[in-house]
């Protein structure tokens, strides 16, 4: 996010990957939805909205899911099966983003 400035809205899905971490997600939701909490106050002060798509509605996240699928496809072709460190992955990603 820092490369493109502060975001104005965060969207989260309700995918199966959240099921295994349901207790942590419940704590996070409580923090976000409770106006007395620090995170909610910080987001409000910064003008950032955090929205959740409806449960069992994958079509709401279709655009970003398609973007992720495309990114994964092209990234796999670029790295050609090589295991990259975080710094190497970041470098490759930034270099490719400059081409757009």
UniProtKB/TrEMBL annotation:
This is Integrase catalytic domain-containing protein. One of its GO terms (molecular function) is nucleic acid binding. InterPro entries: RNaseH-like_sf, RNaseH_sf. Gene3D superfamilies: Ribonuclease H-like superfamily/Ribonuclease H. It comes from Trichonephila clavipes. The lineage of its organism: Eukaryota, Metazoa, Ecdysozoa, Arthropoda, Chelicerata. It comes from the Eukaryota.
